[in-house]
From TrEMBL:
Domain RNase H type-1 residue range list: 1-139
Pfam families referenced in this protein's UniProt entry, alphabetically: His_Phos_1 (PF00300), RVT_3 (PF13456)
Species in which this protein is naturally found: Hamadaea flava
Record InterPro entries: His_Pase_superF_clade-1, His_PPase_superfam, PGM_Phosphatase, RNaseH-like_sf, RNaseH/PGlycerate_mutase, RNaseH_domain, RNaseH_sf
Name this protein carries in UniProt: Histidine phosphatase family protein
Length: 359
């Protein structure tokens, strides 16, 4: 199989908060087979570019590629890997050697320099990773571990999963399909709205754009102490399951067992035609940053889906990716997270269900 690897990396400062992005495409159709992106902490531009190349080659091997066309807007990396320029900087030699080891696993690898405007996908991933690295550096600098009670009011997120839909009841992948709440889901949403009334006055109700969430958010907004509009935030939408949409786990695994295994092993891997958990995490962090900016020190109901809420809780608990597969979130379950101005986080509850009607 022949693929194209597009890769990029950079840093905010040189060195500075750094990150990379890489995309693997089918050489024939241009379809995205895999994405990779990661923050690197403090690193140089060139080291981040090499990290992007390494990630792209690794992803190409994982999808079973035999021939690879590498396209980057880094003249230095392309010329060095093609053997036309010497690698003079000692810090880059181990990275180039690692890339060369990966290259030996393919039948052929070609290198091509492209202008930045033709590398926008990888460039966007790299910039999002740099944003995350910058935020992590600021948080680390600002936050001290302490049991001392905080006096500044937190921004409280009341995370609410939408109520049950027909696909939820059948345990089918429900991503971008815009299915409405089932009757039992409407009852669950009303019960969640009643529960939120006891958690203090709300400053805002924000929601994924899909109707199973806007319906749930509508009940919450109606029952709030003050009449509130539902603010739709596109970044809170569910993961795109691509070709697995509306399938059960067993059906998806039977259809493409290799893709399923790769997806379960890495949050950087997307379902065929879909979206990786790493990409979801990036946009969800962007949504939370916006909420904190607009509603600092207040309580906000955040109505979303399983994947975004799990990722918010993973980050809040500083947990690893295994957390995503070990946490269960019920329809209309409630979780509460406090975010403090100094970067501190307090998770107060996870998947409250005592308010839900019995089945």
């Amino acid at each position: 199989m022949k693929v194209v690897v597009e890769a990029d990396g950079g840093s905010r400062g040189n060195p500075g908060p750094a990150g990379f992005g890489a995309v693997v495409r089918d050489a024939g159709t241009g379809a995205v087979l895999a994405e990779r992106s990661e923050s690197l902490g403090i690193a140089t531009n060139n080291a981040a570019e090499y990290a992007g190349l390494i990630a792209g080659l690794t992803a190409a091997a994982e999808v079973g590629a035999t021939e690879v066309d590498v396209r980057m807007d880094s003249k230095l990396v392309i010329e060095q890997m093609a053997g036309r320029w010497q690698i003079k900087h000692p810090g880059l030699r181990p990275l180039a050697a690692k890339a060369a080891d990966l290259v030996r696993g393919f039948a052929s690898v070609r290198y091509q320099w492209i202008p930045r405007e033709r590398n926008q996908h990888a460039d966007r991933l790299a910039n999002e990773a740099m944003d995350a690295a910058t935020q992590a550096e600021l948080t680390e600098a600002a936050t001290e571990q302490s049991w001392e009670p905080r006096e500044d009011p937190p921004t409280r997120l009341i995370l609410v999963r939408h109520g049950e839909t027909p696909l939820t009841a059948e345990k089918r992948y429900s991503g971008r399909g815009d299915v409405p709440l089932a009757p039992v889901g409407e009852a669950q949403a009303r019960a969640a709205a009643e529960r939120l009334k006891s958690l203090g006055p709300l400053s805002a109700v924000v929601s994924s754009p899909l109707q199973r969430c806007t319906q749930t958010a509508g009940y919450i907004a109606e029952m709030a102490d003050a009449e509130l509009p539902v603010e739709v935030m596109p970044d809170l939408i569910e993961v795109d399951f691509g070709q697995w949409e509306a399938l059960t786990f067993a059906e998806a695994r039977e259809r493409d067992p290799a893709a399923m295994q790769a997806w379960l092993k890495s949050t950087a891997v997307a379902p065929p035609g879909g979206e990786s958990f790493q990409r979801v995490a990036q946009r969800v962090r962007r949504a939370i940053a916006q909420i904190r900016q607009q509603h600092a020190g207040h309580t906000v109901a955040v109505v979303s889906h399983v994947s975004p809420i799990k990722l918010i809780l993973r980050d809040a608990l500083a947990a690893g990716d295994a957390f995503l597969y070990r946490l269960y979130l019920d329809p209309a379950g409630i979780s509460v997270v406090d975010l403090y101005p100094d970067g501190g986080v307090a998770v107060r509850s996870v998947n409250e269900t005592g308010h839900l009607p019995s089945r």
